[in-house]
Structures are given as C-alpha cells and as structure tokens.
Amino acid sequence: MRIRATVAAVSGALALSAFAVPAAHAAPAAPNVTFSNMKVNGGKAITLGATSTVKVKATYTVTHPATVSMSTILTGPVLYRGTSAKYADTQVVSDDPGTCTKVNSTTVSCSATITIPAGELYNSDAGTWKKGGVAADSKTGADKWQSDLGTVPVRRAAKLSTDAAPEPVSKGKAITVTGKLTRADWSHGTYAAFGGQSVKLQFRKAGSSTYTTVKTVTSSSTGALKTTVTAGSDGYYRYSFAGTSTTSAVSATGDYVDVR
C-alpha cells in the first residue's frame, strides 16, 4: 500500500519489491499487458470512519499477447486522485500482488485486496477517486501503470443521533426531537460537527416497518438538530441524512414514544 506518492510513504511486499524499479544501465521494456473490467468494493462506495482501516476487494482482467508469459509479471489495482495513477498526489496500491487465474492464452482474471487507513488521509481526500492498474516484471523490475479505469467514491463516515421527549406524552401535546450530525475527521482521528445539512425527521408508527418523512431540519454549526411535532400515535422517530459526495448516508436508531 502506498499513500500520497509525493511523500513516498511505501509499505507492503509488493510496493517494496516488484513495484520498485532497480537501478540499471538501460531501462528494460515495460510489461506488455492491458488492464480492464476493474471493479472495486463490488461497485459500492468506500466509507471510512475517523480512525478505521478498510480492506476492499478489487477484481480485474489482464490481457497480453500469447507470446508473453505471465509467470514473472505481478499485477495490482491502484486507487488515486489526480491525472495519473503513477504520479498522483494521493495514491493507494494493493499490499500484495493480485491472484490471477488463466482464462485463455491471452487473458487472466485477477483479484487483490486494497488496504486504506483513514489516518493517512486528509479530509480533502474524500470524493471521487480513480481506478488504475500497475504491472511489474519481477525479473527486470520494469513496470507499467495504467490510468482511468473508472471511478469509486471514497467517503467520510457520518454519525447521527435522535432523542424524542417527553415520553410518555399525551396525545396532541408537543414532542421535541433533538439529535446531532457528525462526520469523520480523518485529519484529527475523531468525529466533528457537520453543519448546514438538510436532515429528514422520519416517523414509523408502532406495528409498521416503514418510515415516512415528517419534516426537514437543517443542522446547526455544531451539528445539532432540533424540532417539534405533535403527538399522534405510538411510534418511533428518527433523523435520516441522505449523504453527500464526500460523506456517507446515515439514519439514526429510532426512538420510541408512547402516546397516551
């Protein structure tokens, strides 16, 4: 795994060996392979908490001329932000070479694991990342990087709470529903207030399995949520946040109110 290539923070057997080109008098030829069908995390967004380390699976196809032997060529997926997989400011390479299975004389099908530690990311790294691939010849050290194999969202995890009071309450009386919206702060390893966001207050009647939206509330600068509703029947109140391009969606656990 390598994060922020410009800092050269390199770890993992693959990055230290096959993906590091040794000194040579003449540069050897790069592996004659092409990546395609790159899928990461099953096509779903990658969400990281404040201090979490996430491992995601990547699958991909590698094609090559029939005259090229794959016995010495190691391959792996790359996630990056920027214009180039090789020279991206933020870059993650799989810790170990992909495991590949021969499909025919010119194609192999591969899978690998990518490890992403939130502690190595800036908050500004959240958003759309690009997918790429890297192949290295273990005999010569020559490598090939391929960019623009699709995109994957990388998001900061959100947390949301709900508290409805008083409980029990008389029918027709006011219920005050409070809560708080926070999201992962990768830079500081904690959760911070997420203000100015539209959050839905939802209600699920006792005996039902479906929540319906009652109203929409905007979180304050401290992430606080507060509104009132009129007590009508027993049920559960919760806040629900749809998420953004940089932050995950989240729904709070429902808080039950007994209406008498």
Give a brief rundown of this model.
This protein has 260 residues and is mainly beta. It has one helix at 13-16, and strands spanning 2-3, 9-10, 34-40, 46-48, 53-63, 73-81, 90-93, 99-104, 107-117, 127-137, 143-146, 151-156, 158-165, 174-185, 190-193, 198-205, 212-218, 224-230, 235-241, 250-251, 255-257. Strand 10 (127-137) and strand 11 (143-146) form a beta hairpin.
Could you explain how this protein is built, in words?
The structure is a single chain. The protein is mainly β. The protein is 2% helix and 52% strand. The chain has one helix spanning 13-16, and strands at residues 2-3, 9-10, 34-40, 46-48, 53-63, 73-81, 90-93, 99-104, 107-117, 127-137, 143-146, 151-156, 158-165, 174-185, 190-193, 198-205, 212-218, 224-230, 235-241, 250-251, 255-257. Strand 14 and strand 15 (190-193) form a beta hairpin. The N and C termini lie far apart (58 Å). Residues 4-18 have low confidence and may be disordered.
List keywords for this structure.
single chain, 260 residues, mainly beta, 6-stranded mixed β-sheet, 5-stranded antiparallel β-sheet, 1 helix, elongated
Can you tell me the overall shape? Answer: elongated
**How many E strands?**
21
Summarize the amount of helix as a percent range.
Answer: under 10%
Q: What is the assembly state of the chains in this entry?
A: single chain
What share of residues are in beta strands? Answer: over 45%
Structural class, from helix and strand content? mainly beta
